Amino acid sequence: MDHVRPVPDGAPQGVPSGGDAARLADLLRQAALGDERAFAEFYDATSARAYGLALRVVRNPAHAEEVTQEAYLDAWRSSTRYDSARGSAAGWLLTIVHRKAVDRVRSVEAATTRDETWNRETAPVDHDQTSEAAQASLEAARVRNAVATLTDVQRRAVELTYFGGYTHTEVATLLDVPLGTAKTRIRDGLIRLRDLMGVAS
Amino acid sequence: MSDLHKLTGAYAMDALDDLERARFEQHLAQCEDCRAEVAELRETAALLSETVATAPPAALRESVLAGITHIRPMAPEVPQPAPTPLADTTAGRGRGWMPFLVAAALALFVGIGAMVSQPWSDDDQVTQLTAAEEVLQAPDAEEVFLDLGEAGRATVVRSKSEDRAVISTEDMVSAPEGKAYELWFISGGEFTSAGLMPDAPDQTVVLEGSAAEAAAIGITVEPESGSEQPTTDPIAVFDLTEAA
Prior knowledge:
The complex is a heterodimer of chains A (201) and B (244). Chain A has 201 residues and is mainly α. Helices cover 68% and strands 0% of the residues of chain A. Chain A has 2 domains: 14-109, Rna Polymerase Sigma Factor, Chain: A (Orthogonal Bundle); 111-201, Orthogonal Bundle (Arc Repressor Mutant, subunit A), CATH 1.10.10.10. Chain A starts with 16 loop residues before the first helix and ends with a helix. Chain B has 2 domains: 2-105, Arc Repressor Mutant, subunit A (Orthogonal Bundle); 131-239, no CATH class. Helices cover 28% and strands 21% of the residues of chain B. Chain B has 8 helices and 8 strands. Chain B has helices at residues 2-5, 8-12, 18-28, 32-47, 58-68, 85-91, 99-106, 131-136, and strands at residues 142-147, 153-159, 164-170, 179-187, 190-196, 203-206, 216-223, 236-239. In chain B, the strands form 2 sheets. A 4-stranded antiparallel sheet of chain B has the order 1-2-3-6. A 4-stranded antiparallel sheet of chain B has the order 5-4-7-8, with no helix packed on it. Chains A and B meet through α2, α3, α4, α6 and α7 of A and α2, α4 and α5 of B.
């Protein structure tokens, strides 16, 4: 299932999230019954997002690989607990990946290193650095368009939180806004994205 | 309360520190609106990963697929008439989607108690004080009590001047088969092991290591031999910043 992999030549193959969601949930259900081939297919359909997210948060490719591997092993182990009524299979997996990636940066990297890395990489072009290949994805374009409608503070708050792995207290300090403001911007930003992207419970 | 509702976004993106998370999970267990919002916001946040998708090295696929052949998918959740909190906690590890319910169900009742407690002091008795007694009787002793529900009750007393902390338990249930309770000093999101708790319902244990700087003390369920870092979410967190 290579269709969700980044396409090097830029041909827009897209990531059909709608129909994809049911198929992924189904693969995970089969995996829960011990079907390793179904899990391999699940991996193929999600690994670019999982690895890309881990890489974006932890920065170090070797660490990103470890984080991604741990997340998939966890997903396999707990596939029996996945409930499609509570959310998409990709969302479920990426929640696990993000949690592990954030745990990793917080415990392993010194805060100073992260600051430097972040500052270096948060120039205006920031999403494009780790993922030129991902440009081809239609879904990515949709997400990017939605992100572009956020206010500056909302966008930064969301990105520092999700990709930077910072706590909301740290985000408040980085953006030099009161804690209450950071909290609100993080939530408002996500809610706006939710509405634009049509995410329903 | 209204303030807690606003943490859904930060929680959905793992942007709370350990203590905030513990408190918010406690709130989530009771707030259906926040649970629904967290689910949606997590889903939304996950979409952001589309913009950074990157093909992983081929070797990763091999190791993941080799790894799963050695792991059995855990037993599914089956409706239980009266699950005990502890069994629920260990079984719930790795549940992924809503692990907070499990943690919240067991404990994470962050107690606030600033009482200076000297329960065992006795002026007439001039004897060698044990290490535990020195902490309990220190003039700057800070105490935090936690009711762990069916799992028992526990009190942590910390003295900065003694640089030690002591935990006393009452009716504490045993850790699950093959597991032990491990104590941790928590400071700035870092966990430092403070030793394993002997398996006894009522006991007073001096934590191993320097206690003065700890912001909190946590208990996790670990393999019998202990872990260098927690491998499960804490079943209890004693917030010492509120006790000061």
